[in-house]
Amino acid sequence: MSGRITRLCVKEGEQVKTGQVLAVIDQVPYQAALRTAQANVSAAQAKVETARIELQGKQALFDEKVISDYELSLARNGLAVALAELEQAKAQETDARNNLSYTEIKSPSNGVVGTLPFRIGALVSPGMTQPFTVVSDNAEMYAYFSVSENKLRQFRTQYGSIDKMISQMPEVGLQLNDGTFYGRKGRIETVSGVVNATTGAVQIKARFPNPDRELLSGTIGNIVLQGVDADAILLPKTATVELQDKIIAYRLRNGKAEAAYLTVDRLNDGNHFVVKQGVSVGDTIITEGVGLVKEGMIVTPKNVTP
């Protein structure tokens, strides 16, 4: 509806419920329009009663052969017109009542009120492109992420189908932008049927419970997926160093440190790398003080119990 805001009922960041009034637009003209519509309904009802009485009188005269069938038909038509005008007046009353109700801007869902760019006295109208506000229903949050087409194919092979993957895949974790892990697990809900032609990746949506409103809309993080790869080697990240875009581990060869350039799976738990290439089962890996190790350095191994 068009009009000036006369009352703001909430503040930015406030928790609201479905149907709660957020603001009120000037109601005076819409209240007047409703009263006019109600008066028109009353007038139309009076016309119907008058037309009905007139028809009854005409019917009696017609039965006594005082008037013609033509005059009786006119009376019947007069009642029909009055009834139609009554229905029209009732429709206009309903429209006016709805317009008045629309002057109360209500929350469409439970959630948190976003920015309120409009203040009391601001003029609003249906043609405005800027929303009054955004209510974020963040009791549950959806995380969108992508996996490679090859990785999705591996999951499909492992579970038998995409539907079984969605229903049977273990819960997923969420690593936040600061490196910490969100305390609740999520579940995969949908897998896109389209491969991005540019990236070769497929989008997946996971749902996370968010009862404490810890997650905010637009939060950035990493999704942690659980999978089974019997041929993979798991290395703690502390046993590696990153040099530009390369990940390096050091293994022992003839008592000396030898650099191994790793190919890793970026789907990890935040603390380990899943190594696809670079080291082999049986290699002795240096796990402590890796940042001080140099190629060819003599190293005395000390077995560490996992």
From TrEMBL:
<comment type="similarity">
    <text>Belongs to the membrane fusion protein (MFP) (TC 8.A.1) family.</text>
</comment>
<dbReference type="GO" id="GO:0046677">
    <property type="term" value="P:response to antibiotic"/>
</dbReference>
<dbReference type="InterPro" id="IPR006143">
    <property type="entry name" value="RND_pump_MFP"/>
</dbReference>
<dbReference type="GO" id="GO:0030313">
    <property type="term" value="C:cell envelope"/>
</dbReference>
<dbReference type="Pfam" id="PF25944">
    <property type="entry name" value="Beta-barrel_RND"/>
</dbReference>
<dbReference type="InterPro" id="IPR058625">
    <property type="entry name" value="MdtA-like_BSH"/>
</dbReference>
<feature type="domain" description="Multidrug resistance protein MdtA-like barrel-sandwich hybrid">
    <location>
        <begin position="2"/>
        <end position="135"/>
    </location>
</feature>
<dbReference type="GO" id="GO:0022857">
    <property type="term" value="F:transmembrane transporter activity"/>
</dbReference>
<feature type="domain" description="Multidrug resistance protein MdtA-like beta-barrel">
    <location>
        <begin position="141"/>
        <end position="225"/>
    </location>
</feature>
<dbReference type="GO" id="GO:0005886">
    <property type="term" value="C:plasma membrane"/>
</dbReference>
<dbReference type="InterPro" id="IPR058626">
    <property type="entry name" value="MdtA-like_b-barrel"/>
</dbReference>
<dbReference type="Pfam" id="PF25917">
    <property type="entry name" value="BSH_RND"/>
</dbReference>
<protein>
    <submittedName>
        <fullName>Hemolysin D</fullName>
    </submittedName>
</protein>
